[in-house]
Amino acid sequence: MPISALKRRWRHSAGLSFSLAYGLLYALSSALFLSFLWWRTIGLLERQVEMAVETDQHSLSEHWMQDGLPGLMLAIQDRLEQNIDDDAVYLLTAPDDRILAGNLPAWPTQITRTDIFYEMPILRDGIRVTTELHAYQLPGSFHLLVGRDVRGRAILRRLLTDTLIWSWGMVTLLAIGGALVVRGMFKRIVSSIARTTAAIAHGDLGQRMELTGNEVDLVATTVNDMLDRINRLMEGVKQVSNAIAHDLRTPISRARAQLEDASLHAETPQEMHDAIDRAVADLDHVTNIFEALLRISQIEAGARRAAFETFDLIPPLTDIAELYTAVAEDAGLRLDVDLPARQDLYGDARMIQQATANLLDNAIKFSPPGSIITLRCSLGTAPKPDRTLTISVSDQGIGMSDTDLTRASERFFRAEEARTTPGSGLGLALVQAVAQLHGGRLIMNRLDPGLRVAMRLPVTKNSKTVTQDVMKKPAS
């Protein structure tokens, strides 16, 4: 592959870039580690030699102090005879450079200072060897040279260097292998996502990423949850579209038929006006449906939160209860109200009132004469950060089946028992949107007989923050 093509592929391939970066980082890290290991090992050997030389010189200085020049010469000779490893280097010279003791043929010309160690090759017994030497100035212009033959250290250094180089080479191969493995994993993840999204793009909404039992499942689970939500939203859009077409076709067709009939057969102005009024009523019903849909969409989008404030919830609930008490009496029902003296809440009073009115309207619509409807507001007993407020409406009506309860808050959904009653199937959808806007949720429970529908809302001091955080999440 040409170098230019390889560069383009590297720039545009996230998997290749990631694997190369991983391999390079691994190889550099191992190189730094092995270099540090080499430096510490060689440094330790050098310090051991220097310490041995310093200790040797200190001992020889004591002989000089105690026994003078003869004692020092005798000590050097003894040390050379007892040096089993044959690595000791000594040289004692007089002020006129005569050699008094030692195993070197002459003083090395390179050694001119007494404050540093010299590592240098010297000729010893006819063999050139590497030594580490240190010179010392003795009283009376005598000079002492103490050192060690470090051929073994040089061999060990070469051996250690070769070993570390080979180790780094093997680690680099492992890094390359690991990079290829990482690239393969990355490619499998991307390929799985690509296959799934391609299938979704071609209309197969049931396609999901496979779970492999490792960390990749975090990505797969997130993608699958997203696809499940998209599928639910698509089903919801399909159901809403079908429901709108079904619910609007009848009133629009009826209005058209009435107007057409009046145009062809009306004989008096009064008959014409009556036909127009009936058509207007049907069109008003259509308008109300669209207004309800618009309100629900605005609430779910958070556009109706401008009026949020802390208010006393009891007066709005009392007003709506007084209104529906009369409505319930006209239907032969009784409305019982159980409200506390005061309850503060952060939210929109008009929306809470509208949602409660929807609950009461449904309860009255589906309750038999003589039954009791209960409006209750109660505060939970949980600690303050988790305390919730429940606004509930209970009735003794026809209720719902478990299957219908799972779909009751869907737009335009109407149970079989409710299809003969007037309505559009948007009441509970609006209640659920209001509850979610306030950071709460809608709860429905079957009674024997009847149904209990409640809005459970948070009433913590930071309820405003809770509401904003909930609105950032997509509605389920």
Q: Would you kindly provide a written description of the structure presented here, covering whatever features stand out?
A:
The protein is α+β, with helices and mostly antiparallel strands and 476 residues long. The protein folds into 3 domains: 3-158, 2-Layer Sandwich (Beta-Lactamase), CATH 3.30.450; 216-298, Helix Hairpins, CATH 1.10.287; 304-472, Heat Shock Protein 90. Helices cover 58% and strands 17% of the residues. The strands form 3 sheets. It has a 5-stranded antiparallel sheet with strand order 2-1-5-4-3, with helices on one face. The longest helix is centred in the N-terminal third of the chain and has 69 residues, at 14-82. The chain is rod-shaped.
Question: SSE layout and pairings?
Answer:
Layout lengths: L2 H10 L1 H69 L5 E6 L5 E4 L15 E7 L2 E12 L3 E8 L1 H51 L14 H50 L3 H33 L7 E4 L1 H17 L3 E5 L5 E4 L1 H17 L6 E8 L8 E7 L7 H6 L19 H11 L3 E6 L4 E8 L4 H10 L4
Parallel strand pairs: 7-9
Antiparallel strand pairs: 1-2, 1-5, 3-4, 4-5, 6-8, 9-10, 10-12, 11-12
Q: What share of the residues does DSSP label as strand, in percent? A: 15-25%
Strand order of the largest sheet: 2-1-5-4-3
What does the average pLDDT come to?
77
Q: What's the total count of β strands?
A: 12
| Shape assignment | rod-shaped
Q: Would you state the CATH class of the largest domain?
A: Alpha Beta
CATH superfamily of the largest domain: Histidine kinase-like ATPase, C-terminal domain
Residues in helices, as a percent range: 55-70%
> What structural category do the secondary elements indicate?
alpha+beta
- Taking pLDDT < 50 over at least 5 consecutive residues as the criterion, the unreliable ranges are 463-476
CATH architectural group of the largest domain:
2-Layer Sandwich
Structural domain count: 3
